[in-house]
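Run folding on both entries below.
>entry_1
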Amino acid sequence: MNPIKGIRVLVVDDEPNILQFLELGLLNEGFEVKTAPDGMAALTMIPQFRPHVAILDVMMPGIDGFEVCRMLKKSENVAIIMLTAKDEVDDRVKGLMLGADDYMVKPFSFEELLARIHARVRNQFPMLAGEASFGPFRIEDRRKEIQLEGRVLELSPTEYELLKFLVVNHGIVMSKALILEKVWGYDFGGDENIVEVYIRSLREKLGDREHRLIRTLRGAGYRVDLP
């Protein structure tokens, strides 16, 4: 399985052996890992660590995994995998009703857990996995390649970053100032009209003569509308 860089995983379990086993295994796979022995400790570290994936044991003293799951789903965009020593339907249903994304029963295979983590990341954080589809567009970030309806677009590095920024944020109006900051960098000292030049070039390469894909909103900026 290809490693996914930059993914933060929080493991919460009151069994030290499981914490150590999962921490070492996940670190070896390239993940950033934090561990917590109980629900309270997990909740205190979440605001700074901001995990992409949380692996929660159901049965813990104090705040159990169900309550941590409920509180996490209220405030964070996080994929939650619940662990339990009991293979009971009621526990599965309760966890899923509270927002859990997946469920595993102890003892479990590390390889299977790893596969489920990768699946959740691809589903909830596709750009971190290196590729994602948005309407007719497919972005493969590792290859620095964008396809439109299966056709690979011939883009310069700046055109690639600009189109990716607009497509990922489709439906949202992006001002020239924001585009300059995110694509060219906050310290860019040139004329903001350079954005117009690159938008014109992108429209030509997209065959967007009627500006249906990249729309101009006068005085506001640009917006990508997906069919």
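>entry_2
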Amino acid sequence: MTGAVQDTTVRGSEARPVSFARGAPSVDIVDVEGLQQAAQDAFTADPAGMTGYGTAVGYLPLRAWIAAKHGVPVEHVLVTNGSMQADAFLFDELVTPGTTVLAERPTYDRTLLGLRERGADVRLVTLEEDGIAVEEVAELLAQGVRPALLHVIPTFQNPAGYTLSLAKRERLVELARQHDFVVFEDDPYVDVRFSGEPLPRMLELDGGAASEHVVYACSFSKTICPGIRVGYLVGPPAIIDRVRVRATGTYIAPNMVAQGIVHAYLTGERFPAALERVKQALGERVGELDRALREHLPQASFRRPEGGYFLWVSLPAYEGHDVARIVAEAAARGVAIVPGTDFLLEGGENSFRLAYSAVQVGDVDSGVRRLAEAVAAARG
């Protein structure tokens, strides 16, 4: 082990730690100057709104901007301190001990944690390369399973990077209408697409302003920066108003300063070009990651995503991999990854998630080479 660590500290970029663990952009692709200007613009344009408490629905100009983006009345929108808080509020409204909830297998680890903490009966449904296995959902429903909620990350899914196909989106909406459950469309990565064509949201497929069975969540953490901590819900006004009451009791109002800065930045001149730079950088990074995995870890299977932050890697199950050992061996070589077991209720010992959003292109090859060494050492 000691010799392996010494080997990784010999040459240039190989001496640097490489983290494929955190789903966040590196600071070089964040428009820091633009955000500084947006903060100044926001305080200049609306000092009272920026410095006051506001209300639980969020900063009103931003709420209106979001409503216009999705083609719904403002009563359908609530702005929160990040999309994870939006998730938590919705779970608190719809999930009680014993409530059946369907979700993808694998899915975001914080989703699993939040649902299990609330005592949900979580049923995980196979995740295929074109999204959740909707006919498996249909079979569960035919067997009498009655979920209150189906949670899905439809675009560049975390942890897999997969995208739900149009046909499956339409089928999920159809099933939700037939069996009267809510589809929670958790979609924070949708706007960081760097290849391929965008797909309609299930919120739109369910009628947009007339939607009764889809609640949509999104975030500005991926398009602007994570530290801004601004997300939102769009859904039927009855559900949104229940969440508003809960938000009022939680904090009276979310962070008006952060939301005001987001609004100033979105309506300013710099946002479109800045978002394009983010998407270009992510596309370059995933391209290099794709190449490096094929060269250094050819036994791995994965699907190159068309956007987002993540890529899911599976190693041949028959080789008997132990992802906990792989994680430890990788850490000893200065490489951080997240084990597949974190995203599942069981299984995942031969899988791991790689986040490429924060890794400079010049560090990808070194990181993957050391990761391949870790995989070999873990088997040995």
